[in-house]
From TrEMBL:
PANTHER family per the UniProt record, alphabetical: 5-FORMYLTETRAHYDROFOLATE CYCLO-LIGASE, ATPASE INHIBITOR/5-FORMYLTETRAHYDROFOLATE CYCLO-LIGASE
SUPFAM superfamilies xrefs: NagB/RpiA/CoA transferase-like
Transmembrane segments: none
Lineage start: Bacteria, Pseudomonadati, Pseudomonadota, Gammaproteobacteria, Alteromonadales
Record's catalysed reaction(s): (6S)-5-formyl-5,6,7,8-tetrahydrofolate + ATP = (6R)-5,10-methenyltetrahydrofolate + ADP + phosphate
Entry binding sites for ATP: R30, S31, A32, I33, R34, R161, M162, G163, M164, G165, G166, G167, F168, Y169
Alphabetical list of InterPro entries matching this protein: FTHF_cligase, FTHF_cligase-like_sf, NagB/RpiA_transferase-like
Protein name, entry field: 5-formyltetrahydrofolate cyclo-ligase
GO biological process, one term: tetrahydrofolate interconversion
Amino acid sequence: MTRVTAKSDPSTATMAQPFELTQFNPAQDRSAIRNQIRALRHQLSPQQQTQAAKAAMAQMLTQLRALQPTKVGLYLTNDSELDTQPLFQALWRLNIDTYLPRLHPFNRGQLIFLHYRQGTRMFPNRYGIDEPKLDIRNLLPTEQLDLVITPLVAFDELGNRMGMGGGFYDRTLAHWQTAGKPLPIGYAHDCQAVPSLPCEHWDVPLAMIVTPSRVLRFGSETLAQG
């Protein structure tokens, strides 16, 4: 994919504070970047977290009205990530089916997605993150998802995403550009932005990033309708 400068959508901003890039040294290695951004995220107060979650949800719903998905992959919040519970509730009210990632039981490093609704039984995985009980009846092949809203540690202006280092989303979404779906959308706090990220050939660029204050698009034809 040819990387292009993001098209920001300032008209959708809902936060009073202007968007500012994190103070950042590009020479830092990946571990240092993760530590820096996670520390910034942990400094957010409960009130800031609540406000950010509501603002980001509003931004995301605006985009989803244009994209009109029926099956959405989403994640449960962990480690001071942007809270997804308000978004889950909104998607359910819109009768959009939601799916949670689960570590693949056989292919190490891959994710599968299982239908998630209120009352779904959850169990902690080896990282201590809750995931749905493995039930083939609730399994949906990843390529049948319309989009996957991904967690991340940091992102940059070209749509590059840095996760926790396990590569789970990069492997799972490696073919989205040729298949056209599922569309990967990053969901993050504004403080998780950096001017540029060190990238490897296996890193999967995002089609869109939604934060509490703005929406970044990255030139995919799939987004033309939005």
